[in-house]
Write a structure and sequence with these properties.
The protein is an alpha/beta fold and 220 residues long. The protein is built from five helices and twelve strands.
């Protein structure tokens, strides 16, 4: 069943994060990942189509922002955390689809590191755990994503509980493969009550519709 709330007097407010983050090494280099941001943008587009108020916090992508969606552009994990903690205060639903870098460079260089200079070792420090920070602020539906290389369900359930989520959406990275940019990823959806749904052979747009059906019908 597709839920459309455009006729409701109170329109739900949805916060979506999408895309990768970039962590600077020097002015021209950075650490990142292969996320395209497509899934988060599809979720934002479908939520807006249903009449929701949508804020999209986006890492660097080349995607076109869905019409009518408020976009906040960020680069690093620290910037994304700051924007998320600000927007979450007025959000009914939070969907954390971004692929946030787990680490950043401790001491980014202010000038370009030249070839042939003394060997450089990059010291990495952990980025803040945005999902866990948001999980401590209840009163809204919180959705996390998990990309795993093994034990998908076990690791997804662990993350669901540790981060205090209402939903976890997990998929598996196959050896030699990539889910980033893949249009029909297989997904496992688990809610905090333990109910499971498997999505196969669905486009990201189709999956976004199913995910929103579940989220908008969920009682905290």
């Amino acid at each position: 069943m597709r839920v459309d709330i455009r006729a409701d007097r109170k329109r739900p407010t949805i916060l979506v994060t999408a895309g990768p983050t970039r962590e600077k090494i020097d002015p021209v280099r950075f650490i990142s990942n292969y996320s395209t941001g497509t899934f988060g943008y599809e979720i934002a587009r479908e939520a807006k189509r249903r009449g929701c108020r949508v804020t999209l916090i986006s890492g660097p992508t080349w995607l076109e922002v869905p019409r009518g969606v408020k976009v906040v552009r960020v680069e690093s994990a620290v910037e994304m955390r700051r924007a998320a903690l600000k927007s979450v205060k007025t959000s009914d639903y939070v969907i954390m689809a971004a692929a946030v870098s787990d680490w950043r460079v401790a001491y980014p260089q202010k000038k370009k590191i030249k070839r042939g200079t003394a060997r450089k070792r990059l010291e990495l420090v952990e980025n803040p755990d945005i999902l866990k920070d948001l999980g401590s602020k209840r009163g809204r539906v919180l959705v996390g994503f998990a990309l795993e290389t093994e034990d998908v369900e076990k690791n997804a359930v662990k993350k669901l509980k540790e981060k205090n989520l209402d939903f976890i959406i997990a998929n598996k990275l196959s050896p030699g493969g990539s889910v980033f940019g893949e249009n029909k990823p297989s997904l496992l959806i688990i809610d905090r009550s333990g109910h499971k749904t498997v999505l196969r052979d669905k486009t990201k747009r189709e999956s976004a519709k199913i995910i929103l059906d579940k989220i908008l019908n969920f009682n905290i």
